[in-house]
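User: Look at the shape:
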Amino acid sequence: MILKSKICGVSDSETLSFIINHPNPPQFIGFIVNYPKSKRYVKFEKLKELLKIDKKKCSYVAVLVSPDHKILEQIKDLPFDYYQLYDCDPEKVKSIKENYKKKIITAITVKNMSDVYKYKNYLNMTDIYLFDSKGYEKSMSFDHKLIKDLNLNKEIMVAGNIQLNDNLEYYKKMANIIDLSGALETAGIKDISKIEIFLNKIKNLKYEN
């Protein structure tokens, strides 16, 4: 089985088209929907146009930080497959899942092991767990070894300042999906040559039986 991948923070049509039409596209493409602090944030009108591009085999992910009712209503008819939720308590996640009928990626931001164990609060409403750093718009790391021995019945996605030159083999031992954003940029802009390298590296990573 091939390790799955997510490219996050896509904000222009040229990059999106390249990713979708790549011979080895990622399974997930993320868009920063409601977090203006991020340089990857996409305003709603631009987002609507961007998402008219046929996603083909990819899943579109709305990255949402503590979303309010207004933004959730605004994006409800856009072709998102997943909502990736930061800073939402279990009741809010459950409500969003039930009201908007989307699959949920629950983002757990990690500094220590007690943060990792917060996943237990979301067992009944999460489709994928994302373990990320507390950096948000800043590219920060966390000790990925903290999630190494988790044995969950849901898919695990890992992010947190993972670099293109890292040994990606290491991450497949702890996660089903690897999520890159800043590592695929040059001067803060998505770099197609780096995306090409990443997708080809992922293609060659196999799970151990």
